[in-house]
């Protein structure tokens, strides 16, 4: 049996990324009900809002789901206690070292997965005692590793560095892409962008429609002095590019970013002033679908490509 499916108790080795302003209880429960693993994105939720989403997700699905926790979250202690109090069983951590919180989570019976951008960090995750690793290439939307390593280079490097169950992320939105990462050593995929653009996503329709009309090259990795972030090119990104080009300081970049930029763009639909985070793979998709349609399409594409490769039709 696939180790990812076995670890989480799911039908398909497809995990929905826990994205800020997109990953509420409707999206997470829909992914879990369709056979994948849905994740609530705690990064854009106050602790009590997260509690509400956990309870609504528990009511909407009897399947496993989890919570993504950025470890630099300002109220991290409160959030971790809520995970315990609400009986959360699966936690994906990111944006920080897993060493501090992994023992706490595992003491409370949780399965812990950490997101990395390099084989060095993958080895540190294994030392910290996590149950699985997400290796995310820089094609991904939102916050990225400083190494700027692509997914196809990162997966085999991480596979050599650890024997833990491995999920591939970054630039994956189709079944054939999933199969490609499996050939390199992954056992499952974490998909953000395609799920962010589904009907059940809590992202604003303006944001979804903008992203469903992107072409290659319409996103860029910026904000490298703060935390490298892949953004849709536009009003805000032009201001960021201008500031970075003239060598703006970290303090100036923080002031430019301000507060609530991501909420303004992705959740409220302000496409000029908002921070619009999405992955490169958005350029492959043109219509808003349901979660069930997306998962069916991914699994159909995976099986068709696997058949094509194994029946000799793709041989030289």
UniProtKB/TrEMBL annotation:
**GO MF annotation list:** nitronate monooxygenase activity
Q: Which InterPro entries match?
A: Aldolase_TIM, NMO
Spell out the SUPFAM superfamilies in the cross-references. Inosine monophosphate dehydrogenase (IMPDH)
Keywords of this protein's UniProt record, alphabetized? Flavoprotein, FMN, Oxidoreductase
Q: Does the keyword Nucleotidyltransferase apply?
A: no
Q: Does the keyword Disulfide bond apply?
A: no
PANTHER family, from UniProt? 2-NITROPROPANE DIOXYGENASE, 2-NITROPROPANE DIOXYGENASE-LIKE PROTEIN
| Entry protein name | Uncharacterized protein
Which species is the source of this protein? Parabacteroides gordonii MS-1 = DSM 23371
